[in-house]
Amino acid sequence: MPGNIIPEVLDVPLPSEARTRLTKPLEYSGLLDTYQNSDLTPVIGREYHGLQVADVLAAKNSDALVRDIAVTISQRGVVFLRDQDVTPQQMQAFMERLTTLAGCPESSGLHVHPLTEEGSELGDQISVISSEKQKKGGGLTHQLSDTTRLASAGWHSDITFEPVPSDYAMLKIHTLPQTGGDTLWASGYEVYDRLSPALATFLEGLTATHEAKFFHEEAARLGNPLRTTIRGSPLNQGPALEAVHPIIRTNPVTGWKSVYVNRGFTRRINGVTKDESDVLLQYLFNLVTQNHDAQVRFKWNKNDLAIWDNRSTWHTATYDYEAARAGDRVCSLGEKPFLDPASSSRRDALRFS
């Protein structure tokens, strides 16, 4: 575990407004141990019963509770909270507190998606996840619909096309089919640990380009102008929807390394030929999709809530249903991705702790 976080991207200094405020990883204090919980797999996912977001917001020791929740999410990848009585506005307030206490830059707030309509009923910072919208051809699902019939093509991390991408995301499902519609998450820590030392060292010297230019076509088809104003960070604005990030990044909350490319938005590894890039990316994508023991699958009940760390997980929905499925999502923004050369893998950190 590193003693200090060194926020650089391959020795290139990061803008001050995009740096994490943490100087070392956060430590878990144990406040959540009194709540009933269970790990869903050895490497990813933890489920809590009786832990209500609304109660955490109102608690006298709210900041300490939220900080422990942040540490738990970042260590376990995704946390599931059953049967939540929480409004979209409370979700927004919780996410603002979570990202702040986890050390996000002062300029980072909640993300505004480029396809968010002006005057949205729930506000710019709350996204409505709806199967009805998907049927009209929305987002990543539409982009993939005419190129593949493999459900695994949907694996992604949220908004990596932004220079300052998401640290945490929260989703509450309030409308769901009788069966189907599960969501899967995979651990970027575990995928890093499955790299050979030689390949890991090689990848740590490279960056990749992420982009979502297909959102321009999406905006034109849906008849909504693309949001080019500030989208939660002063570095996230304009029409480019493209960013360069390290292939291996350090999560400042844990100090652990994670693979940081995804099928949804990563287009090219920089510094190698296109052929080499294609081979390397396909191998990394295969490590995510073909290792079920690095994944957790969650079956939703009404009003269940998931919070995950986008810096070190991927996720994908399961589109195996016909009935309506809908929920509310809030994404916070963290730091610009960086690699601390002194950071460790998850396995090494746990082995020597």
Automatic annotation (TrEMBL):
PANTHER family: ALPHA-KETOGLUTARATE-DEPENDENT SULFONATE DIOXYGENASE (PTHR30468), TAUD_TFDA-LIKE DOMAIN-CONTAINING PROTEIN-RELATED (PTHR30468:SF20)
GO cellular component: cytoplasm
Organism: Aureobasidium subglaciale (strain EXF-2481)
Keyword Nucleus: no
Keywords for the protein's UniProt record, in alphabetical order: Dioxygenase, Iron, Metal-binding, Oxidoreductase
Keyword Oxidoreductase carried by entry: yes
Gene3D superfamilies reported for this sequence: Clavaminate synthase-like
GO molecular function, one term: metal ion binding
UniProt similarity note: Belongs to the TfdA dioxygenase family.
InterPro entries from the UniProt entry: AtsK-like, TauD-like_sf, TauD/TfdA-like
Domain TauD/TfdA-like positions: 38-323
Cofactor(s) recorded in Swiss-Prot or TrEMBL: Fe(2+)
Protein name (Swiss-Prot/TrEMBL): TauD/TfdA-like domain-containing protein
